[in-house]
Amino acid sequence: MIVQKGKKCLLLRVYLESKKKSKVTKRILFLLMIPVIETKSTAEIREFQENKLSNLLEYLNTNSPFYREKFLKEKIDIRKINTLEHLKSISFTSKEDLQLRNHDFICVSPNKIIDYITTSGTLGDPVTFAATENDLERLAYNEAISFACAGANSNDIYQLMVTLDRRFMAGLAYFMGLRKLGAGIVRSGPGNPELQFDTLKRINPTAFVTVPSFLIKLIEYAENKGVDINATTVKSAVCIGEPIRNNDFTYNKLGKQITDKWNIKLFSTYASTEMGAAFSECTFGCGCHHHPELLIVELLDEHGNDVEPGTPGEVVITTLGVEGMPLLRFKTGDICIHDTEPCKCGRNTIRLGPVIGRKKQMIKYKGTTLYPPSLYDILNDLHEVENYVVEVSTNQMDTDEILIKIGVNNPDELLEKKIKDHFRAKLRVAPSIAFLLPAEIAKLQFPESARKPMLFFDKRIR
């Protein structure tokens, strides 16, 4: 195999699943690669996934108590499920299923479980995910190709400003993926701007992994301390947990707030513990790429029908290559748009836009349908607002009520009017406003059990 240098070289697009490749070859491919399946035609990707689907169904029928029962109950003959269209004959898996039947999803014996991961459940208690050695290897592969998609290589040093403990999957995944990629890693953890800038000074990282709103805190800290952030070695940031783009892939208010002051490239991602994989943005910044060797993805309307590109739909995923807890037609609850046009980077997979909202977080307010990100975008555009949380409750009329608690040191009536006028101009409705001290809002955002900032509190009576 001839290896040429340069991030855009497609001679390295070799599919890594082949066990015949040497360790040296695999190492080289991880440095500058686009998996070959991601550059194939739609028909070829479909054929590849249908072959993987047959293997998955056999595995679930043999090893998963939950899915074996589902197949029997729904009278599913897995031998007849041999196309992606046939997959639709199987009912969805919900978050409530995971909550109520958690251990029935586990497909391996306890001695094969290497890592226990938890994610927040919908009924109060967290859901446990069991990962095997192969699952962790798959996770590392996903993150390696995702970082490579975002232009990373072995010369980079990534400052991980995320949680690596508390049974959190993401921090571990980033660490393993960057390690596989051969990049340098410094685990500075979340928060503490002083520590982050000390790390910048001592180690000279080239990129961050962070919640994007924390970059605003770093900018404010630098301005107060007289630090020239554009003189640092950081050139990019992989952003998690919050959208930085609009549906047309331009930067939203948060993205613009960051890039107007800090000359760095921001990369979007979309991921969840349940999928054990990620949709990642390439250097062209026009949506998060699907990795079809890891996931079958459907985008569906409320009736379970496929939506057209550019039309919002719920993301439904089927995991490929997961050993411990595979999922079949799992409803994420996330609403996104997608694009099917080939990307300039050479990938032909679908691309997801930012999460418009979560299905269960949809708000019906004074005749208007809203999702929390639309509220965040407006609040992020107001420089007087230091921090905030959004609370939704059920009022006496049995309809949704919105209260936004805003962190401001010196609030007044003029500021409240300005904020409400801003909401009316953008959304045609204005929520209720309550001013608190920024420190009080910070406590709401980061309760003791939290692993990431909590901006939305749903107190509605269901």
Summarize the structure.
The protein folds into two domains: 33-359, 3-Layer(aba) Sandwich (Rossmann fold); 362-459, ANL, C-terminal domain (GMP Synthetase, Chain A, domain 3, 2-Layer Sandwich). It has helices spanning 23-31, 42-63, 65-73, 84-87, 95-100, 133-149, 169-181, 193-203, 212-225, 253-261, 372-380, 413-427, 438-445; strands at residues 113-119, 127-132, 157-160, 184-186, 207-210, 236-239, 265-272, 277-281, 288-289, 295-300, 313-319, 330-336, 338-339, 351-352, 357-358, 363-365, 368-370, 387-394, 400-407, 432-436, 456-459.
Write the SSE topology:
Blueprint: H1 23-31, H2 42-63, H3 65-73, H4 84-87, H5 95-100, E1 113-119, E2 127-132, H6 133-149, E3 157-160, H7 169-181, E4 184-186, H8 193-203, E5 207-210, H9 212-225, E6 236-239, H10 253-261, E7 265-272, E8 277-281, E9 288-289, E10 295-300, E11 313-319, E12 330-336, E13 338-339, E14 351-352, E15 357-358, E16 363-365, E17 368-370, H11 372-380, E18 387-394, E19 400-407, H12 413-427, E20 432-436, H13 438-445, E21 456-459
Parallel strand pairs: 3-4, 3-5, 5-6, 6-7, 18-21, 19-20
Antiparallel strand pairs: 1-2, 7-8, 8-9, 9-14, 10-11, 11-12, 12-15, 13-14, 16-17, 18-19
Helix pairs in contact: 2-3, 6-7, 8-9, 9-10, 11-12
